[in-house]
């Protein structure tokens, strides 16, 4: 959630669009690629991550990254979603690269976070995608998020 004074905004795609308009490049770092087709692809990847991989999100929530790893194996639906994620990400991430586009975009962080749901829980992830996720995880902006103090976890 973005909180700016009395203004509150949820849903990450809405937040990205708002920030891109409110704080445009070059005065501020761009969140999306500058090339039109790359920007469209970044939006596609981000929307796909949120709409088509729910079993992973449900069975490997971010709490399993930041607090305690999952204790149960992925269900058949979770395994199918993990296979779909790995297959698509293998196409999206260019060989020999650790970013989706010429420069970092928020889509890199989104895809890395989804892959981390598997990596942090000991699931098998190909080395190319593991290298991509680890490179994104080392970015200073992503590290700031990862290392941000969090309250004790309370299951709901």
Task: Describe the structure using short key phrases.
single chain; Glutathione S-transferase Yfyf (Class Pi), Chain A, domain 2; 8 helices; 56% helix; 2 domains; 2 strands; 156 residues; two-stranded antiparallel sheet; mainly alpha
What report would you give on this structure?
- The structure is a single chain.
- By secondary structure, the protein is mainly alpha-helical.
- It has two domains: 30 residues, no CATH class; 115 residues, Up-down Bundle (Glutathione S-transferase Yfyf (Class Pi), Chain A, domain 2), CATH 1.20.1050.10.
- Helices cover 56% and strands 4% of the residues.
- The protein has a two-stranded antiparallel ribbon.
- The longest helix is centred in the middle third of the chain and has 17 residues.
Distance between the termini: 19 Å
By DSSP, the count of extended strands is: 2
CATH architecture of the largest domain: Up-down Bundle
Strand line-up in the sheet with most strands: 1-2
The major pleated sheet works out as: 2 strands, antiparallel
Brief write-up:
This protein has 156 residues and is mostly helical. It has eight helices and two strands; from the N terminus they run ββαααααααα.
